[in-house]
Design a protein that fits this description.
Layout lengths: L11 H8 L7 E3 L4 H11 L5 H9 L1 E3 L12 H21 L14 H12 L5 E5 L2 E4 L9 E5 L2 E6 L2 H9 L23
Antiparallel strand pairs: 1-2, 3-4, 4-5, 5-6
Helix pairs in contact: 1-3, 4-5
Length: 193
Amino acid sequence: MTPISPENPLTSQDAQALLAMLPARVEIERGMSERELDQVEERWGFRFAPEHRTLLGAGLPTGSDRWPDWRDGDAKVLAEQLAWPVDGVLFDVECNDFWHPEWDPRPADTQDALDVARVYLAEVPVMAPVYSHRYLLADPNRTGTPVLSMYQTDIICYGTDLADYFHNEFRRPMPAQDYQQYAAIPFWSYFLG
């Protein structure tokens, strides 16, 4: 598959092919309507990337708590999934002395450091859960950004785009990709070093 880009957007047929890669234990519910997707975005205060919307419109993977159930999911679970990336950074600020180099100097007191970090993290791009701790940039104006595996500040690229990610996670990896050649995501790309 050609990399996803504004010139080569994910089509409904492409999305169906990606969903077909999922193991049999994953249930694929009917795709979400535009109205349902709009309601999710309004409720949770973010907007899906175009390819994420297309995927969810083609079918909604369910069958385990690793897939966010945007239609009927428990609100607490969805809130935790959405908070996971920022909460992971805050954990490392508190427990592992992480401090981003572009932030003001770290306060000596841990609680003060957490308070300052929260202010900075309130401005970082939202990452939307795709599966487990794999996330895609939530930006309706960006196409073809990488899927990141996010566990605290241990963040790695799991696919140069959504299609590459599906191949890597659920099938055989696509032909050799240059994992240094992916779209940058403000703040989050810092961890890809």
